[in-house]
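Bug #2210: token dump truncated for (rape) hypothetical protein?
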Amino acid sequence: MAMTSCFFTVPISESNLTRPHLAFSPRLPSSSYFTGVISAKAISFHRRVTISPVFSASIDNGGSDNNNGGGDGGGGSGDGDGDGEDRDRNRSEAMMLLAESGTELESLPKDLAAAIESGRIPGSVITRFLELQRSAVMRWLMQFAGFRERLLADDLFLAKLAMECGVGVFTKTAAEYERRRENFFNELEVVFADVVMAIIADFMLVYLPAPTVSLRPPLALTAGGISKFFHNCPDNAFQIAISGTSYSLLQRLGAIARNGAKLFAVGTTSSLVGTAVTNAFIKAKGAVDKTSEGEVETVPIVSTSVAYGVYMAVSANLRYQVVAGVIEQRFLEPMLHQHKLALSAMCFAVRTGNTFLGSLLWVDYARLIGIQKSH
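Reproduced locally. Full output below:
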């Protein structure tokens, strides 16, 4: 029941929304926002706002499939007066922040500029973008659309990537040593291949289910219905929609299916490479050293790889969706967004526990379907 409730947002009144407001009436026409009534003090308020208020103002419209300027790809609003006002406000806030910072709209990435013009992102996202541009590393990463969408949604995204890959390297290496013992250093090639595949899988497990600020433009009218549907699904089924955007229950379920398909491909491919390299090394060693032949059984490549792909698509997919969209974004971030060190520590603890749980579940699953023997 707790997980199901995360698909919905309880309707709240406009006065209770926690997004930052500028000092003007939201019902004024957009052209009147630039008449000089707004003071610099009102604009500077956004500079002190963290990224969390971007998401706290969302209202999921239940049955509405409209997203990114129209769920049908047509770009029509059809959202009702409330969403129309949100988009007008978003556009005005973003344009004023850009003007105050001396940034030209044409100098921004094309997807970000289009999102600003259509009112799909609030001023807090622009504030976050301008802050990230101050770092040379972040500025370089922001050139890539996938990193741009994730960094604008979560300022700890890179830290979480490092946490997950670091824990993955340590646990995988420890597991390899436990399994090989005295042969560990004699089989470093296999160990290296297995660890690299584990890092790739861990990277994708953080990257794919991470909440995003969607900057993707609507698809063309000629696109198929299935393509349009999955295009408008969120990247995380449980993520909070930003102001001016909403996701239906069906779209959130679609996010689980879409990420599951991607993780199945990642898991199957990584396992194919890892088990193939391991088996090749075992056979080569047996050909050279006849005394070691038969000591270690080869791993069934196809069955193991498909089983691991299914495990990634179901167990890992759901666990990482819940960690990123529920535990971190809906619980830890609202409580600790002003205490980044404590937030990072809690995220590390949660993700380490999730990795440990995943290892236990994989062993049980592998033994259940018979690809690993219980001794």
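Output looks complete on our side. The longest helix spans residues 249-288. Marking as cannot-reproduce; reopen if the truncation happens again.
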